[in-house]
Design brief:
Blueprint (H helix, E strand, L loop, with lengths): L1 H27 L6 E7 L1 E17 L2 E4 L5 E6 L6 E2 L4 E7 L2 E6 L4 E4 L8 E2 L6 E4 L3 E8 L1 H7 L4 E6 L2 E10 L9 E8 L10 E18 L4 E3 L2 E8 L2 E12 L3 E6 L6 E5 L8 E6 L9
Parallel strand pairs: 1-21
Antiparallel strand pairs: 1-20, 2-11, 2-15, 3-10, 4-6, 4-9, 5-8, 6-7, 8-10, 11-14, 12-13, 12-15, 13-14, 15-19, 16-17, 17-18, 18-19, 18-21
């Protein structure tokens, strides 16, 4: 009888040992989760910011055509938009002192005529304005810092109503206005006369904030306990690398750290990562998941 119970005990012990061994083997074969991530490359370059300044377009040349004596307009030889030569006869007036002709003081395009034939005109305002719409200027008011950025820059780019124009810096005033801003005048060619005086012009200037530095996407930067760090993909795992942020902008951040140009830095899917987590890089915009 004792032998029976002893045999039963040994059989039970072997069963438990076998079950534990099977469970242990199963645990050994459980795969660690692989996290799908998106990456971009670390680059080296200058961290540049753009500043956009708004100004107004004006005529580079605006010459008033004066009326010497008031009178009735008996003859009108031009209309707004006409191009005239210097000393061209524009109109004739009947005045108290006799007949008077109005001549163009300069060549250009006629604008601003308000009078019509047989109407009485006075000296209160010019008869017309002679301008040149092929050559315009834009005036901006900038801070001293932006003014300094423009020193030595002869050529700038203007954006007017969605069209791009190459401009030339005509003047950088050294005298600030009441708001502490400095006038800047930029001239540009308006060959097809698409731009008109009064339109809004945008001047974009670039400022180098950090030169020749490691650049990483700003969305890749993470912080913990006042320490900034990023994850890079190396041999199929996410390696955490501490960095020092030199300057951050919305898209790029200049950093110092143990990074090299071309390193695959994780920009999405990194919120739940830890050092040496297995990862799989997917194309930007794909869904991030753990498998």
């Amino acid at each position: 009888m004792k032998r029976f119970f002893l045999g039963a005990f040994l059989i039970s012990l072997l069963s438990v040992t076998s079950a534990c061994t099977d469970k242990s083997n199963q645990n050994e074969h459980v795969e660690k989760p692989v996290v799908s991530v998106e990456t971009k490359e670390v680059t080296i370059g200058d961290l540049i910011i753009e500043r956009t300044i708004y100004g107004h377009v004006q005529s580079l040349k605006q010459i008033p055509v004066p009326i010497q004596q008031p009178g009735t307009l008996t003859q009108l030889n031009v209309k707004n938009g006409d191009n005239v030569k210097r000393n061209a006869r524009l109109a004739t007036l009947k005045t108290a002192g006799g007949t008077q002709s109005i001549y163009a003081p300069e060549k250009g395009e006629i604008v601003g005529i308000k009078a019509t034939k047989d109407t009485y005109v006075t000296q209160d305002e010019p008869f017309a304005i002679i301008t040149d719409l092929h050559h315009l200027m834009a005036t901006f008011f900038v801070t001293s810092k932006v003014r300094d950025l423009l020193i030595g820059k002869d050529a700038v780019t203007l954006d007017i109503e969605g069209d791009t124009f190459k401009g030339k810096v005509l003047s950088l005033d050294k005298l600030a206005n009441e708001q502490g801003q400095y006038p800047v005048t930029v001239t540009f060619e308006n060959e097809d006369k698409r731009v008109l005086p009064g339109m809004i012009a945008k001047l974009v200037t670039e400022e180098t904030r950090v030169a020749k530095t490691l650049l990483v996407p700003t969305e890749a930067i993470m912080n913990e306990s006042d320490q900034a760090f990023v994850f890079i993909v190396q041999d199929g795992v996410a390696k955490q690398v501490d960095v020092t942020v030199k300057e951050a902008q919305s898209n790029e951040t200049a950093v110092d750290g143990d990074l090299n140009k071309g390193d695959k830095i994780i920009t999405a899917g990194h919120q739940t990562l830890s050092h040496l987590t297995e990862v799989s890089a997917v194309k930007e915009g794909h869904h991030h998941e753990t498998r």
